[in-house]
Design brief:
Oligomer: single chain
Radius of gyration: 17 Å
CATH class of the largest domain: Alpha Beta
Strand content: 15-25%
CATH superfamily of the largest domain: Vaccinia Virus protein VP39
CATH topology of the largest domain: Rossmann fold
Structural class: alpha/beta
Number of domains: 2
Number of strands: 7
Order of helices and strands: HHHHEHEHEEHEHHEE
Shape: globular
Distance between the termini: 41 Å
Strand order of the largest sheet: 3-2-1-4-5-7-6
Helix content: 25-40%
Mean pLDDT: 94
Amino acid sequence: MDDVLAGSQMKGIEDVRPEDVAAYKANYRCFAPGLKTTDIMDAYTDWAQTYDMTLCSGRYNGPRMAAEELASQVPEGYRQHIRVLDVAAGTGKVGCELSKKGFTMIDALEPSEGMMGILEDTGVYSYKYMEFLGVGKNSVPDNTYDVVVIVGGMGEGHIPVRGVDDLIRITKPGGLVINVMRLEYLDYVEAYKDQLEPYMDLLHQKGWWQKVDRKVVQNYAFDKEGVIFVHRVL
């Protein structure tokens, strides 16, 4: 994996603050072009023990943004009845933020064994799937969740465009899919450029889901813009 990193241009680092460069490089080890899936999972497992310290609040605000978005969609009195799946759950930062907002039925999908070990210690998740999304079959049942949320799971070598089909499949009709990701990935990640957003729009046109919102947010991660996609499954 170090050979891949050494031979690649570290995209996006040019406007990162000096005090955040080391953290950005640690993050990039999981997002560099050309990495195999096994390389990415090994990188996440190696990083797990220091992940939360490296991507601390202020440097990485995606989990808080996702929780605020979902809370804006679900009145407080209903939150304990909403079943949520946190996709690419990592160390459980999203689940912890959702728990603060009153959500209690939270499951996790996370393929990295090291990350899952940290996530389990949070105590906020019920069922855990240690597997991938959008890469072959997975065991998450159809029409199971009221909300599927994914934060930071879209990127180079991560969930492919076809993973959107799985997001819809596992969400109940009328349920929400909330995807929070770095905006610039839509421009320079080859798997997503001119593909991810058009595919999401195509599924809207086909009646698979309805676009509820698309908004650009500031300071998603490393002072970079993020984008929040909200869709309702039909």
